[in-house]
Predict the 3D structure of the following.
Amino acid sequence: MADQRYNLFTEEHDALRASVADFVAREIRPFVDGWEKERDFPRSLYERCGELGLFGLKYEEEYGGSGPDLIADAVVTEELTLCGAGGVSAGLGAHKDLGSYYVYRLGSDEQRKRWLVPSIRGELISALGVSEPGAGSDVASLKTKAVRDGDSYVLNGQKAFITNGSKADYVVVAARTGGEGYPGISLIVVDKDTPGFRTSRMRTVGWWTSHTGELFFDDCRVPAENLLGEEGKGFVYIMQNFQWERIVMALAAVAAAEKTLEMGIEYGKNREAFGRPIAKFQVWRHKFADLETEIHAARCLTYHALRKIVAGEDALREVSMAKWLSTELDWRVADDVLQIHGGYGYMMEFPIQRAWRDSRLGPIGGGTTEIMKEIISKTYGL
Ligand SMILES: Cc1cc2nc3c(=O)[nH]c(=O)nc-3n(C[C@H](O)[C@H](O)[C@H](O)COP(=O)(O)OP(=O)(O)OC[C@H]3O[C@@H](n4cnc5c(N)ncnc54)[C@H](O)[C@@H]3O)c2cc1C
């Protein structure tokens, strides 16, 4: 982390950063290689994060939080990202910033007490189920149905690619309660043990420790009181919440890119060819300078967008820019750093292979690069 506060962070944020970094160094990083082999990380890590208050920074004390402080929450995101395994930070992040955050933003007091409070403690794990096998970018075309029947909704359909999907205790599900298109979508919380709800785990290129799940709903009957917010407003809620999801992805990508670049410089200093460290060749020195400059630029844009969100301003364009720029950059940095590793870069023993696989998700998840550019260019009035 560059030694600057960017007119964003206070001394308290710096202290929080140091304590989360210490937690990551002692209780996560030493174990991630083993967890990668197991393709999983323990549920107790959510509880430990809960104990340390890391899930509560966006929330008031009445729910067990210590905020609301979105900037403090961003600090947690950045530091958890540095644990060395994208799957761990993604699993914790999807809980912190997606499933449970939807409950806070849209839920009644009763719903918050039921799902959010134990989520802040890390006792319940959450997920957000929007994407389907046939509808990802085009959210408005999703097909999962929720038909009202007395005091229940009966869900039928399928979701795909859901982070924490096969691990979560509850999922905030986007389902069609009305007609075609975006006005027919609602958000409904489905508890894991609900009859007619089952999950399976998907195999992924990266993010090995996170559970990327498929969700299946077969006549799954959910109490109508599990509806979040108003019926038919789900699409609007998803679009609003995408702003937070995307800024979080940008923050994580910048933090990861910086760490990956450090890894590349270190490797280049220690590996010799033609009688000198590889990093001393001008082409690599300049490559590092290019990448560091771009990381700094992406960080400034990301913090600018975060500042606008915190101020309650419209940050649609800046968030979309920060999301695509930072995630594409993270992937490019990982690819260049893999290249400086030569043949070792292609071996599973070196951490760069994981950074390379994990960073590939950034330009896809949470709205692809192409969709970000659609959003930005739609504001030109063309
Ligand atoms: C590991 C992982 C974790 C995920 N976690 C979650 C989660 O927790 N919850 C959740 O709901 N979803 C999740 N997703 C789903 C993710 O958000 C979608 O994969 C993503 O939005 C893209 O949708 P898609 O896969 O259907 O691709 P598609 O929409 O089929 O897109 C395919 C390609 O077409 C391009 N394309 C589409 N429309 C346009 C257009 N208008 N102009 C130009 N190009 C276009 C896309 O950019 C992309 O390159 C996750 C995905 C992965 C891989």
